[in-house]
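Regression test attached.
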Amino acid sequence: DVKVTQSSRYLVKRTGEKVFLECVQDMDHENMFWYRQDPGLGLRLIYFSYDVKMKEKGDIPEGYSVSREKKERFSLILESASTNQTSMYLCASSAGWQETQYFGPGTRLLVL
Amino acid sequence: AQSVTQPDIHITVSEGASLELRCNYSYGATPYLFWYVQSPGQGLQLLLKYFSGDTLVQGIKGFEAEFKRSQSSFNLRKPSVHWSDAAEYFCAVNNNAGNMLTFGGGTRLMVKP
C-alpha cells in the first residue's frame, strides 16, 4: 500500500511565523503535490513537483514556497504566516502523469 | 480552463436508500475523471476513476459512476447506502496533458438511521 505521511495533524502558529509542513511518501513516486482544502471550495493546488529540486506553481501559490531535496520528501513553507492561511493542507503523490494521486491525512493549520 | 461543479453541498439519505451525487465538468477534450471520499479526520481515498472505454465505472465500497459526455456529467451512485458511507465526496477532473487535478467543492453526505 502507498503511504503518504504528514508531519503534524494539527498546528497552531502566530501571524508572521515561518511554518514548515512536511510530507513523506514511501512508494518512490515521481510527482508530489500540496493542496489546501477550504469548506465549499474543495481542494486547490498550491504547488507540485515532478522531480527532485523541480517545482511548478499550482492555482494558488501566493504566500507559499516548496522544497524537494529528496524524492520522498516534499515540504511546504509559509514564509510569514497570515490568518488567511488557516486551512487544512493535504499532500499527495503519484507515480506519474495521469496516475492516481494518493493523499496523506492532512494538517489542520490555525494561524492566530 | 477546466472546472468541476458539485451542485449539492449537503445530502441526507436514509440508511438502505439509494444515492446519487452529481458532478458536472467543463473541459474541452475527453477528461480523466475521479471520485474521492474523505471520511472525518482522514485524507482522500480514491473511489473510482474513468479514463476511457466503458462509460459505467465500478469502484470500491459498492460505488459506481457513469460518464455522460453529452451532459458533461460523471455522477456517483450507490444502490444501498450504509451508515459508514457518511463522508465528504469530491469529484475531480484531470486535464490529459498533465497530472493536475481540479476538484469540485465537495458534497457532504449524512446518513440517517
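Expected vs. actual: identical. Chain B has a mean pLDDT of 91.
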